[in-house]
Amino acid sequence: MSRNEKLNLIVQLSIPSILAQVTTVLMFYIDAGMVGSLGARPSAAIGLVEPATWLIFSLVGAVTMGFSVQVAHFIGADDFAKARAVMRHGYAFGLCFSLLMLLTAFLIAPRLPMWLGGGIDIQHDAMLYFLIFSLIAPFHLIEYMSAAMLKVSGDMRRPSMMAILMCVLDVVFNYLFIFPTRTISLLGVEVTMPGLGAGVAGAALGSLLAFVCVALPLAYYAVFRSPILSWRQDAVRFVWRWQYIWNAMKISAPMALQYLLMNGAQLVSTMIVAPLGNVSIAAHSFAITAESLCYMPGYGISEAATTLVGQSVGAGRRDLCRSFAWMTVSSGMAVMAFMGIVMYVFAPEMIGLLSPVASIQHLGTAVLRIEAFAEPFFAAAIVAYSVCVGAGDTLKPSLINLGSMWLIRLTMAYALASRYGLRGVWFAMAVELTLRGLMFIFYLFRHLRKT
């Protein structure tokens, strides 16, 4: 393949995934904006437990990757029957795991807001949001597993379309569930808009229903309609093989441990921010949501990297593996450098759409502009890690992520928070992401030079 052909393939795989990632973030962005219109307290309630919801989603994602990487390798080797067998194991094991996550969430929910240092005024809403949002776990597993399997088979379009549909449905459902019944003016005509008026709980209910509406049709297509993955093509009886589970665990376990400790670090970061007050909690949460619009293109390119590197490894093409690795990393850095400029320039508008509170807007803008300088190196860390996942190498990259997060970010954030407040926490974040990106570039250079 020529360089232009490789670049064209990266773009073809990345654009649908980028659109899916961006629309997913827009879903959370719009959610945050709707809740933010209710005031600082509801926003702080969601912001307090949001890292805990990310933890559940991340662990489900780690389990999924253990199976999708194997499927990518088998597809690269043209062994579609084994790819489908791994897929069956993935659904069965993943659903059991997601139900375990759901049970754990229900057990810790009553005390979680208190453990995180939230005030009495937001603890009830935070608990309710976390409980309802946790119900998404099994549907997220179905949606994420189906999308991942289709992506590694080369079908980026359908998962991306369904992600966009989920965003639209989430906006509609949240609009109906968050706000009470009210009269609005539409083209000069007074219209009564029905609403549940559930506030914070309504935001979680809307997201839950959107996931349900997307997960089931996506799974149906992956299982029954996909030209490569459809189970109808299997002529022999399904046989359970623990080797597939073991192989998945060798890939997923380091990732799951990483996500557990990385999101645990996010929870510790929230505990550092919580004593700074509701305004800081809300500004911290909104700034993370706003920043995610800028780094989602990096995650979109990273999914293309996992697919291309995984299939190259399965086909035994080490030359393609090295080439796709460097091209995806450099593309991610270029795109996110541009997005960093956008974030710096439009930070006031990005935060302003999320909250009408002036103090939240001012603080959120300041921390976003601090973070903008780290975006290209954040891209290097995101895409290089996905390159390693595609190659089945997850242990050492996970250690890089963990060491950087716990030894650099949290220690700096704790030291700076008391003197510089939320700005100090985000300065620590920017420094850590820059150093992490440099470490991943160095690791990838050494690793690929040996292959």
Automatic annotation (TrEMBL):
It is found in: Cell membrane. Pfam families: MatE (PF01554). The keyword Membrane applies. It comes from the Bacteria. It is a multi-pass membrane protein. InterPro entries: MATE_fam, MATE_MdtK, MdtK-like. Keywords: Antiport, Cell membrane, Ion transport, Membrane, Transmembrane, Transmembrane helix, Transport. Its main location: membrane. GO terms for cellular component: plasma membrane. One of its GO terms (biological process) is monoatomic ion transport. The chain crosses the membrane at residues 7-32, 52-77, 89-108, 128-150, 162-180, 200-223, 324-346, 366-387, 399-417, 423-445. GO terms for molecular function: antiporter activity; xenobiotic transmembrane transporter activity. This is Multidrug-efflux transporter. It comes from Prevotella multiformis DSM 16608.
